[in-house]
Target: Beta-galactosidase
Amino acid sequence: MTAPHRLRLPPEPPPPLTGHLPFADVPGARDPIEVTSRWLTRGGRPWFPVSGEFHFTRCPAGEWEEELLKMKAGGVTVVAAYVIWIHHEETEGDLRFDGDRDLRRFAELCARHGLDLIPRIGPWVHAEVRGGGLPDWVLARTDAPRTDDPAYLAPVRRWYAALAEQLRGLDRGHGGPVVAVQIENELYDRPGHLLTLKRTAQEAGLAAPLWTSTAWGGVQLPKDELLPLYGGYPDAFWTEADGGWPDTCRKHFFFTHQRDDEGIGADLRPTTVRGGDPEALAERFPWATCELGGGMAVAYHRRPRVDAADIGALGLTKIGCGSVWQGYYMFHGGTNPRGRTTFLQESHATGQPNDLPLLTYDFQAPLGEYGQYRPSYDELRLQHLMLADFGQRIAPMRSVLPERLPTGQDDRETLRWAVRGDGRSGFLFVNNHQPHEPLPDHTDVSFTVDFPDAPPLTLPATPVTVRRGAYFCWPLRLDLGGLRLEWATAQVVCVLDGADGGAADGGDADAGRPVLVLAAIDGITPELALDARSVKAVRVPSGDLTTVGDRLLVTGLRPGTDALVEVDTADGRRVDLLVLDAAAARTAYRGPAWGADRLVLCDGGVVFDTHRDEVRVHSRSSEPSFAVLPAPPAAPVAAAGTVKETADGVFARYTPVAAAEGPGGADRVGRTLPVALVRAPGEAPPTATGVLGRAGAPADGHYDTVAAEYHVPVPDDLPPGSLLRVHWTGDTGRAYVGDRLVADQFYSGRVWELAVDRLRTEGDPGTEGLRLKILPLPAGAPVHIPDRTDDAPLPARIDRVEWLTVHTLLFRAS
Model:
């Protein structure tokens, strides 16, 4: 056996600073929000927010409510949204807050569904938008934007006043959802201007307990006036095409206490400027984030491909590093609105350093441009379930690094781990995943954690292999309902109160006991260590129960829906532990359903709509199966068809039968559509060079002369919720209904998805069909595309177009 990895938790530090910052909630708030130097509180208790970015102006207003419910089901508690000035006032005086620009309606929907809101009001927001979001007419009025130039501040005051009017009555003082306001974005060296903007916003009538600012890039902030928020991305589109994987991204897969990311926005500022004091900020403010990469955009010259594990590993690692606020950019992708006179994306044409697609802003986000569920949504939801129940414990816990640390960012051999602990208990974090350069398996692994107020723990009893790509969090000395769980080699998911643990037959007399739900780690057999002094009796469904000193060890447990360990505690209570397998755990949703708080296992998406008293399932199957714990008194009722009930371990499993299939029928899901080549591609155009010497997107005229053109008929009877999936290769692609551009994409190796419902709002694709124009990429083009080798050319080609339908099924209590 190799020596265990060792870490010593220091004694409990002195209490954090309180009352030292000028952030105040409204008098008499029932759950006042406050900021200490190490964590946030709400209602006097530690608060661990999870925020997700969603740009309402990049999504049709008719879809907002369902997409917000998807975010909430994914564990997001706070919605962050840039309010992009040029989207609202492209022409001076024509200020629009109607339709897809209706900020007030969006805020009211957040409030309706119990989501907090952070408007990020700029005026400069970046967001890969033309002029960083500043309208052309504002830029034409001043030579000194983003300063206290009176010619700049005058229209800013009017903009802020308009926002205050839209949000009037939606502040905390009126029971509204606005918990914070972000001022500007990525402004690193003008603290005086940031303070001017904050005062201007307050004078306009904007109010919130928290005022925030992005804090990367050696930021200089006005002292104590803005809560600094940090970020970190798994990859970046804003670096050079030939620069490889940026070191500033690599570091986010290590456990470290460095908050700043020097790489974000580094193409817009001199990276040698460092006027801030990160140590002073760390002493006075908690480690809060607003831009952990939920994905990554693609620019023309550099097109990163981000996978679910990249996003999940980065998020979990940041919790282990000490984050007390998980904030993701983007959590939901979108589509740029059209300008009245031009497109509104960032581009070389407006002097910005990157050429972005005209329309798509999918961002490879957990929820895609059209609301598609991505595997990263499942990875993050699993972590957010843990934070919902244990964030109050984790937030005050300090992050402690082990005795043996990686020697540098090129060290792939040293196991990466850390502990969040409070001197008596904790959570052990391990990350053995990073993009691009896989990490090796680690065999014969055990850990020793020295506690200052308790004996050390060495775990597990049988050393394990930490596989390449694994990342997880294990509980240490977790007290729950009279039971002490010394450790578990499975990740905490949540605690169900009132679960009967007894199956679909209605349970038993012990109904009401808590169930701790855990998720097994691929390649690691679950091991549960119970403090024998807290246990009267244990019933194990499989595996072995042995006594080792003052611990009871449960080993050999087969994880699954029936892996329920029942514990009678020494003080006469009952606690159960359910260990799901890794795959099932990633189908877990938790929310109010059919009159109680329940855990739902479903391969599709699940939203809990308390206002309509229903659960909606989004699935590629018209008859999705889902399991529920605790089982409701009677099977839920489907809006169409009947529901069959069976037992699945301790869960009740429900399958709708003869559910409404809609036009087209479920049996057609996944069929291909005919694709006709209308025009063969010409010779690939030479690559243009733009700002910073970077490759720029091809000129519009090439789509009419060089691009391959295909025609795809779109049947009128494709059901609502259908997606077209274009399997293609090339450089760039554009999609048209008639002559109207409806979608575009830069090739990065991913399938190109288009929502049929969106196409129908743009025209009549059933009559005209869809026109797809694909440009080839020339050999030697200075463009980074994953898996492209030897600067090879890429032909313009569509291999096939398939369609699938995401059905929405409604279930109510019987």
